[in-house]
Amino acid sequence: PPPPSNAAPAPSPSPPATGGELGELGQLSLKVEDTPAQRILMGGLATPAPVPASIPGCEPSLDPAQGLAPAAPPAQFRLRHHLLSHLDAVRTVCFHTSLPVLLTGSEDATLKLWNLKNILPQSGKAPADLEPVITLRGHTGPVYACAMACERQLMFSGGADGSIRVWNQPPVSLEPYSPYGVAIPYKADVYSHHKDAVWSLAVHPTEQNFLASASADGTAKLFNIDSPSHLTTTFTRSDMPEETVPSAVDFVRTNSSHLAVGYTSGEVTLFDLGWGKELITLKPLAASPDAPPPALYALALHPTLPLVITGHADRSLRFYDLVSGRCVHYMVAHTDAVTSMDIAPSGLHFTTGGHDCSLRFWDIRTHACVHECSTHRLKFNEGIHAVKYHPTGPLLASAGADSIVKIFM
Description:
four-stranded antiparallel sheet, 409 residues, 30 strands, mainly beta, 1% helix
């Protein structure tokens, strides 16, 4: 049968093909295809080497008046400011694509929108206390995920109450101390299709009317905000182990018709958006034959290569080549669970955060840690919950269980 008319990109003609032999990778001997992702993991830049100039972060901001410049190398990131308005652990952060604007979600059941323009270098000395532009209330429990569709001027949030809330993006020119009720006009819609907590949200990178979600009810869903029914597709695995649920979701940058869903069993499954079918499941490489599958807490898709990196409860990172479908590298990255990660817009570095309260910057070619800093304080055995690069500017945000959001430049 033809795919649904409101489905996003066209279905793929076939699942990813398996590859040939590549020999030894570190201490691992795997059969993988000679792909750009594999060549960069082997320590050499894929050819052709130049990164396209259209990649966010490789060119100045779309709005030069905002003063955003390309992202700095990891060793140059320094703590610039603390955001202190939340009353409980901050679980999620999201940047505007071109403006110095940050959205945060917390276990205090609120979302806060921040204008970071005043902490940029050209603004002079940063203010001692930066207040949010607006506080959005609507969830009845902790907020676990947020996302922004900047072209559509929309924001999304998901939480423990199982709902996905859609918000109109407020102007950043609002007065910080607005009267009660000022946020009511920004409540756009509520999606109540999930039956349990929503752990992760992702907006399609090119078709921003599509939103993906991962929930503790065992399903990942695709929503079309322009459709009257909103729900387009429900993704489920045919061989999903018991008590396994999706924990992270994101769109594949190198193939916009594919969705990557990470599971608490440590596996990553690729789905086709057009047909809603499972394409391939990426199995984690176990640290030892007798080790149980490590729970997956975070995943990040490379902006230009068929590469996905996952963070796990066993303190490890795993690298998957999406063409061959193999785990091509494994390493222990933190002294406690890896809870969050993000790849720099240039694609040359990535940053991880864990419950050991450390923020670590890595070279994606050599897998070497090039910079480390302890940023947050431990609270109830939890450290860092979220880390995010600005898509076009030299900003990095981290959020932790200590209810603090820290901005690095």
